[in-house]
Design a protein that fits this description.
The complex is a heterodimer of chains A (about 120) and B (about 110). By secondary structure, chain A is mainly β. Helices cover about 0% and strands about 55% of the residues of chain A. Chain A is built from no helices and eleven strands. In chain A, about 35% of the residues are buried. The termini of chain B are far apart. With about 110 residues, chain B is mainly beta. In chain B, strands 2, 4, 5, 6, 8, 9 and 10 form a seven-stranded mixed beta sheet that branches. The chains are: A mainly beta (about 120), B mainly beta (about 110). Chains A and B meet through strand 9 and strand 10 of A and strand 5, strand 8 and strand 9 of B.
Chain lengths: ~120, ~110
């Protein structure tokens, strides 16, 4: 079965760029019908969309973070990545990657990675 | 964007009881594109229900979903100790997709 695993630094300094990678195992990232997504969750709070990418390179970034987000896909490594620039303490959260399963007009998320805590602090 | 309001915010129940969680949309979701997730402390969310009423693989049949339009529910017929968690709904029928704020189910 498909599994996802986030990796990247757990501590990032303010104003720097947060970089995370999600490695997909048990299936090909190039399989059709899927969107590869990033979601975050500040401590004690709800789920917040960051954005998604399709293997074709098509992206959608949610407006609240749009200007600071870049996503990419590396099919040779079966990975997709997130970069979030100019981070502040407000970006401290657990970051999840997830597979979006497309269903006519949108997608639900299954499975999810275990999540990785990123703290923004000097 | 569609705002999802989950109620109640927190529910205190005992194992063996049944419960229905509500997810109300600010406008009609044109298709039954609503999902439910369960999140236990320190864990990632897990898909329970998609398409409003379809159980995900491996999800026990004590979980069921229903609804259409603006009103959706998740029912757990008999609570097991492992069911005490936070539950989120997500609509994906209208872009951008949105999550509800969550309902916390705690042991009484």
């Amino acid at each position: 079965q498909v599994q996802l695993q986030e990796s990247g630094p757990g501590l990032v300094k303010p104003s720097q760029t947060l970089s995370l990678t999600c490695t997909v195992s048990g299936g090909s990232i190039s399989s059709g019908g899927y969107y590869w997504t990033w979601i975050r969750q500040p401590a004690g709070k709800g789920l917040e969309w960051i954005g998604r990418i399709h293997v074709s390179g098509s992206t959608y970034y949610y407006p609240s973070l749009n200007s600071r987000v870049t996503m990419s896909v590396d099919t040779s490594k079966n990975q997709f990545s997130l970069k979030l620039s100019s981070v502040t303490a407000a970006d401290t959260a657990v970051y999840y990657c997830a597979r979006g399963v497309y269903e006519s007009s949108g997608y639900y998320l299954d499975p999810w990675g275990q999540g990785t805590l990123v703290t923004v602090s000097s | 964007e569609i705002v999802l309001t989950q109620s109640p915010g927190t529910l205190s129940l005992s194992p063996g009881e049944g419960v229905t969680l509500s997810c109300r949309a600010s406008q009609s979701i044109s298709t039954t594109h609503l999902a439910w997730y369960q999140q236990k402390p320190g864990q990632a969310p897990r898909l329970l229900i998609y398409g409003a009423s379809n159980r995900a693989t491996g999800i026990p049949d004590r979980f069921s979903g229903s609804g259409s339009g603006t009103d959706f529910t998740l029912t757990i017929s008999r609570l097991e100790p492992e069911d005490f968690a936070v539950y989120y709904c997500q609509q994906y029928g209208s872009a951008p997709s949105t999550f509800g704020q969550g309902t916390r189910l705690e042991i009484k």
